[in-house]
Specification:
The chain has four helices and eight strands. With 167 residues, the protein is an alpha+beta fold. The chain has a single domain, classed as Kinesin motor domain (Kinesin, 3-Layer(aba) Sandwich), CATH 3.40.850.10. The two termini are 19 Å apart.
C-alpha cells in the first residue's frame, strides 16, 4: 500500500489510480485491531513469490525528479506480511498468526530546495506525516502520557499496533 498525499493506494491492484485514493480505508475492529478494508491480498507459499509481489509494488510507487534526487520517492509505502505457522512437532495443531509491516518512508523534504508547486505540496504531506510519526513514537514511550495521537495521520493509524507494542 502507498500513502501519497494522505491518500491510500493499492500498489498490487490492477485498478487505475484515481486522485481521491483507491477506495481503501483504515478501520479498527472491536478488538482494537487495525485493518485495511479494500486492499488486495495475495497468498504466497514461498519467498520468491513474496519478493516478486514486493518488487511489483515497488515499481508502482509514486516517484518524481527533484533537484536533489532524480527518482525521489514521493510517498510512504507499507508492505504487510501475514504469516500463519503450525508446529510439525506438536500434536495440538497450535496455529500462530503474525503480522509484519515493512515500511519504506519517504525522506524529509526541504521545501526551499523544491521548485515545482506539486513537489512542495508532496513535501508538505511527507514532512507532516513524519512529524506525526515522531510525535506518536515519543508519546508512546512516555509513561506519563494518557493519549497517543495515532489518528493524526494514516501512517500512524496504520502502524498503531506495531508502535503501541501490540504486535
Amino acid at each position: 500500500m502507498e500513502i501519497y498525499n494522505e491518500q491510500l493506494y493499492d500498489l498490487l491492484s490492477g485498478e487505475p489510480r484515481t486522485e481521491n485514493g483507491s477506495g481503501i480505508s483504515i478501520q479498527d475492529d472491536a478488538k482494537g485491531e487495525v485493518h485495511v478494508r479494500g486492499l488486495t491480498q495475495h497468498e504466497v507459499t514461498n519467498e520468491e513469490d513474496a519478493l516478486n509481489l514486493l518488487f511489483e509494488g515497488e515499481t508502482k510507487k509514486t516517484l518524481a525528479a527533484t533537484k536533489m534526487n532524480e527518482n525521489s520517492s514521493r510517498s510512504h509505502s507499507v508492505y504487510t506480511i501475514y504469516v500463519t505457522s503450525k508446529s510439525k512437532m506438536e500434536s495440538t495443531e497450535k496455529v500462530i498468526h503474525s503480522k509484519l509491516h515493512l515500511v519504506d518512508l519517504a525522506g524529509n523534504e526541504r521545501t526551499k530546495k523544491l521548485d515545482a508547486s506539486a513537489r512542495v505540496k508532496e513535501a508538505n504531506y511527507i514532512n507532516k506525516s513524519l512529524t506525526f510519526l515522531e510525535q506518536v513514537v515519543v508519546a508512546s514511550c512516555d509513561n506519563k502520557k494518557d493519549h497517543v495521537p495515532y489518528r493524526q495521520s494514516k501512517l500512524t493509524n496504520l502502524l498503531k499496533n506495531s508502535i503501541g507494542g501490540n504486535c
